[in-house]
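Action item from last meeting closed. Structure (573 res):
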């Protein structure tokens, strides 16, 4: 493929030079033949003198041949052969011009040198030497025939060089033939040097293009976002990873000030080095909000951008999306808190539960054996009630810190939801002002611990009921399949049975129309002991989170203040 492209380039180059030869031939022929005609007109009484007719004919022949060459250059594929043809025809026309203008005494032998130079440019050394040889042969033949009186050139007096005819034949031959070969050697040498320089230049250009393509591929292949800015802090380069992270294209950010794209703090951060080993390096973090509203935490690394002479011409900024890392850090911190609470719960279970049981039992015995008035009985009931609450709290601690070993089995999700809703609707927590709607397909099955999963639904229903308060509202439960890549919710009865189960998850949505959760509190609702309710323990959603995590799933929340909350559970099939 490389050799074929090189051959095509050579042909194209030869075609262009051949076109220039045709153009220059017309100009040169028109100039010199025009001078010859004008000079002869000054000495002739008629425009149709024999000598003028010869010059007219020669000029017309040049133009006709030019039209023929134009036709051939667009029809032939062998441009090299066409070059040789034109050069040889030019030698013939020059010989005819010499014959018309006096032969040995003509002033136009230099025209051979012009053709030799053209041949050297078009065909390099071989073409130049061949043309010089052809010109020498033509010139020698013309002079020999004239010298021996075999032919008699026309004597157009203005173009006769006086003195040659009186000299021996060898002198003009030696002078002109030597000149022909010297011109051929010099012009071909210059042409060869120009060709070598051109080839080397093309090779260098190819190398530069290869390096540019390599650098571009390297920049575009980097998984981290990369951008460069000039000395005026305008963005010059913006790679593919940067486009994917920010949601902006190269055309959208090109030549824009970096503060227009990122926060204004990036300028001071980028110019303040934090790396003690390299003062030219700086690392910092910037909050960035995409056009779709997604908030990102970006980590930047800045370094100086220099040219080949070592002069600073801008900066290179490499950045990554730290949002998943921050979420992982938050997850680890949550797990650490859970582990600490687990140890605390175990200690509480041993240290508090047994004395609490003794206190509760003793109070019950005293209540039965003593004669108490109504006020004392009420106090006894308060002690027993609060003891039971405290015991339940301890039980929640133990369940959260040390969940029971899962007993997974294949369950029908709709049957489990029906059972949980039946229990909930008959419980004191459910009020008549609450309307419950649910859409769960009969075919949804998954492996889970039925008792723990009922508790997940129960806690979410209790949480929704408390969020709606006495005014009531609507609770909606939906379940269906979704793609693991995060495709939109697909109801069960619309699912495509041809999809492989390994590419899907079960998505369960529990939504209410309650008071909602503040945006700055949504990241904390799964933390143990965090609650916004007056009498809440802050363990309900923490237990839900723990159970879903133990089942290999995930739970997320979306909430708008005064509009409601939506919990989404995703579980693997």
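Sequence:
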């Amino acid at each position: 493929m490389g050799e074929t492209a090189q051959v095509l380039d050579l042909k194209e180059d030869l075609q262009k030079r051949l076109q220039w030869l045709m153009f220059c031939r017309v100009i040169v022929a028109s100039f010199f033949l025009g001078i010859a005609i004008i000079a002869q007109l000054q000495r002739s009484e008629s425009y149709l003198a024999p000598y003028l007719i010869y010059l007219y004919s020669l000029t017309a022949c040049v133009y006709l041949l030019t039209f023929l060459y134009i036709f051939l250059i667009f029809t032939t594929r062998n441009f090299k052969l066409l070059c040789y043809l034109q050069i040889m025809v030019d030698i013939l026309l020059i010989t005819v011009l010499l014959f018309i203008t006096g032969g040995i005494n003509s002033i136009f032998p230099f025209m051979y040198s012009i053709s030799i130079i053209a041949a050297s440019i078009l065909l390099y050394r071989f073409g130049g030497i061949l043309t010089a040889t052809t010109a020498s042969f033509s010139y020698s033949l013309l002079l020999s025939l004239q010298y021996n009186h075999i032919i008699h050139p026309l004597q157009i007096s203005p173009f006769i060089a006086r003195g040659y005819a009186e000299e021996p034949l060898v002198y003009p031959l030696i002078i002109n033939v030597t000149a022909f070969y010297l011109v051929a050697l010099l012009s071909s040498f210059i042409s060869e040097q120009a060709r070598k320089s051109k080839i080397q230049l093309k090779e260098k250009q190819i190398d530069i293009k290869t390096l540019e393509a390599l650098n571009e591929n390297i920049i575009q292949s980097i998984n981290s976002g990369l951008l460069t800015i000039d000395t005026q802090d305008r963005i010059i380069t913006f790679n593919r990873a940067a486009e994917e992270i920010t949601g902006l294209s190269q055309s959208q950010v090109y030549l824009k000030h970096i503060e227009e794209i990122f926060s204004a703090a990036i300028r001071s951060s980028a110019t303040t080095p934090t790396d003690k080993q390299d003062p030219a390096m700086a690392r910092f973090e910037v909050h960035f909000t995409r056009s779709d509203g997604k908030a990102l935490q970006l980590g930047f690394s800045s370094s100086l951008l220099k040219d080949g002479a070592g002069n600073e011409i801008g900066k290179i900024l490499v950045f990554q999306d730290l949002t998943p890392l921050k979420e992982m850090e938050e997850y680890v911190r949550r797990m650490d808190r859970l582990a600490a609470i687990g140890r605390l719960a175990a200690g509480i279970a041993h240290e508090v539960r047994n004395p609490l049981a003794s206190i509760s039992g003793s109070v019950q015995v005293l209540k039965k054996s003593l004669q108490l008035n109504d006020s004392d009985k009420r106090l006894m009931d308060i002690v027993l009630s609060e003891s039971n609450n405290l015991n339940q709290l301890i039980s929640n601690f133990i369940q959260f810190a040390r969940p029971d070993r899962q007993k997974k089995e294949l369950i029908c999700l709709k049957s489990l939801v029906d059972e949980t809703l039946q229990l909930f609707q008959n419980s004191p927590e459910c009020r008549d002002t609450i309307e419950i709607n649910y859409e769960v397909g009969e075919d949804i099955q998954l492996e889970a611990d039925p008792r723990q999963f009922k508790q997940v639904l129960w806690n979410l229903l209790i949480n929704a009921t408390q969020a709606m308060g006495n005014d009531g509202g609507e609770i909606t439960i939906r379940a269906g399949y979704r793609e693991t890549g995060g495709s939109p919710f697909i109801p069960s009865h619309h699912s495509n049975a041809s999809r492989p189960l390994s590419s899907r998850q079960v998505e369960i949505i529990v939504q209410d129309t309650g008071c909602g959760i503040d945006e700055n509190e949504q990241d904390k609702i799964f933390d143990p002991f965090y609650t916004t309710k007056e009498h809440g323990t802050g363990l309900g959603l923490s237990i839900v989170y723990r159970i879903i995590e133990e089942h290999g799933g995930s739970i997320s929340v979306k909430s708008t203040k005064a509009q409601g909350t939506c919990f989404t559970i995703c579980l693997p099939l």
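Note appended to the action item: The longest strand covers residues 295-306.
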